[in-house]
Amino acid sequence: MAKHHVSATVNGDEVEFLCDTEQTLLDCLRDELDLTGAKEGCSSGDCGACSVMIDNRLVCSCLVLGVEASGTSIETIEGMAQGDRLHPLQQKFLEHAALQCGICTPGVLVASKALLSKNPNPSETEVRYWLAGNLCRCTGYDKIVRAVMDAATEMRGA
Ligand code: FES
Ligand code: FES
After folding, report:
1. Contact 101 CB / ligand 2 (< 6 Å)
2. Residue 11 exposure: Cα atoms within 13 Å on the Cβ side
3. C-alpha torsion angle, residues 31, 13, 66, 26 (rounded to 10)
4. pTM higher than the cut 0.90
5. Do residues 40 and 61 touch, judged by C-beta distance below 8 A?
6. Which of 36, 49, 99, 139 is most exposed by smallest CB count within 10 Å?
7. How far is residue 134's CA from residue 110's CA, in Å, rounded to a whole number?
8. Is 107 helix (H, G, I), strand (E, B) or coil?
9. Nearest Cα to 7, choosing from 33, 38, 44, 26?
10. Does 133 sit in the ligand 1 pocket, CB within 6 Å?
């Protein structure tokens, strides 16, 4: 079957790619655009490792078809740092050692950024609820939550 031609914006850059009808956005990002930050954990919307933003909405890219991304603006983990300057969330994850294997980390960071853009001063409970869809098998979550709270404080300039 003929491939679909998709145009979208990814991390501020206009991109075009060809994809099959059944190809997920996650696979398009990884296989067609070489953006391998988003990870495939479950392929069923349960782990959050594939989290990206589409038009400012947090989504599991394993549940979105590549063709559905046509005309949208997508943000991935690759767009989070500005050149050599890490985003405060990335810096705090390093300082708090909030990652181990790193499979979940891109999705946790993208989801955390989405949270702080909506709620710059979340409670610990709100952070835990927001990140409930991002599974991590390594860190036990406490360091992740502390890093997000610390980044929120820094980003508020408190
Ligand atoms: S790979 Fe998409 S939610 Fe797990
Ligand atoms: S750091 Fe390994 S799954 Fe989260």
Report:
1. yes
2. 14
3. 50
4. yes
5. no
6. 36
7. 10
8. helix
9. 33
10. no
